[in-house]
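hi! just following up on the protien thing from before. the input was this:
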Amino acid sequence: MKTFFLFSLILICGFQCSIAQTAPLKQWDIRYGGSDWDELSCLQQTSDGGYILGGHSYSGITGDKTQASKGGRDYWIVKTNQDGVKEWDASFGGDGDDILTWIEQTDDEGFILGGYSWSHAGGDKTEDVRGAADYWIVKIDPDGVKEWDATIGGNGDDWLTALQQTSDGGYILGGFSDSEISGEKTQDSQGDFDYWIVKTNDDGIKQWDVRFGGSDIDRLSAVVKTSDGGYILGGWSTSGISGDKTQSSIGYADYWIVKTDANGMKQWDRRFGGNSDNFFRDLRQTTDGGYIIGGDSDSKISGDKTQDSKGDNDYWIVKTNADGDKEWDATFGGSSAEYFHWLQQTSDDGYILGGYSWSEISGDKTQGNQGFADYWIVKTDANGLKQWDACFGGKDYDYFRSLDQTSDGGYILGGYSNSGISGDKTQSSQGQYDYWIVKVAAAGESDCSIPDGANTTDIKPTSVWVNWNAVSNAAGYAVIYKPFEVNDWVNVPAGNSSKKLTGLSPSTEYVWRVKSLCSAGPLVSSDWSSAQTFTTKPLRLEDDSEGEIFVEVFPNPASTTIHLQLPSTPATITVFNLLGEKVREEKVSLPAGQAGGGEITMDVSELPAGLYFVRTEEAMVGKFVKLACR
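and the predicted 3d structure came back as:
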């Protein structure tokens, strides 16, 4: 029987992130949240092998949250075991908004919590706010019970963004402030916001404070104690040469780092930037005594930036020596926007970078997103050369915030998500946004080769065979494909070295790739093969040599109704016009009690005259001519 092949609709779905040859795969993921908005800010592996998660929450007692809200947003921490199973949670807050930005395990196995607060005395807060927002730190024991809290601020806005326990058992607090001399602040602001660091003793009592800034905006994001007993401060600045800033701006905002001694006295400062926006996010002292600095930038080659932006914002890291002089820089990104949040030197002296991405496969990104924004991590060697990248996400928005290399050589990733069960996310949302943590395995556990010899055969209008050479230790394969001009990929499994792709569109150029899934290391896959392309044959009359089933449409021509003889129901009948536009869709069933297939009637009286094509979800296709109604 001759019939007309209609193009099929393409199944669009997110695919598992492409992972380079030695990259890790996900081991597990867990979501924590209540019925409202819960936003994770940071996490850390704890001394018992578990994890401590910190952020802020609007939720009351719902879902995973066991304590009522004290005011607006409260600090909310969750302690888990090594498998991510919750052991306890605790909330801390006053009558206003309390935003946690940092959590760290302390030498006594407890935790120090830091952020900023608009709350007055009440709830867990023992001191009134000094101005608008103040630094607020809370010390808890290993079981999450509060030991003390301290409020530190001036008469303006004081936002704590980082803290660290110091060698004497006290704490160094860092953030930014526009307060004048007032409260705990002993120096006036230089411009708009300035860096403001505060040193406390082990009870949170201030020992000294110091401000660093220029004539414009200077916002600190990180403070780290250094091997010489001093501190390195990092943030972004729009100030020119003024105040404590000794180098002029290159772009609108530049990275700005300040080195101090143990008493907070400035030793030197450095600025790094390109010709546009360069927003600092994180830094670490490296094993060679230098510093690794990271953020996101949309600058072209200019100033300190030696590589063009790949799209919009990209990850941009800068390596310096111990004196803050640049040694090298590196840019990583895709065709859209990447927002950097965290970095860490790894056990092999390389670096792990984390943030979230909006890009599809492009630039340094070897996978498209599962949804709108996904977690994206990049591993480099000690010289900043990329080794692998990996993405994790669900169908909606997944905003990365923090990571930590774990004792098994893998990584724990954290952020917040509103995705339901989809992609890498295995639990539905509790509220608007939830904490979402992802544990990934150590890289390089097994050699898993990229399949070679990729080719296409038996190309037809709606199907093709894709083939490759078998990999000796592969337990299976994954194939991704899409029309060339489409962003989203279809991901299908393959048990051997070939796969028939069906449901394709005629006269359409496609691109596809394949990777190995290796049995020797169940958590390891190869990278994707290089892209292969093919173009399906034109739409034309053909017989059923592909084993397709076709439906006869009668009468033909038709005026008001058409009849279809179907082998089974229920079925969804779709009618397309000559442009491939869907003009009717109807789910049909035979009368109750009638078994098997039978004749179905569809009203087409409202359709204008012309040629139409009919399709069911079982790939049954046909055509009919619609006459003008009289």
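Residues 313 and 337 are 5 Å apart (CA to CA).
The chain is about 0% helix and 45% strand.
cheers
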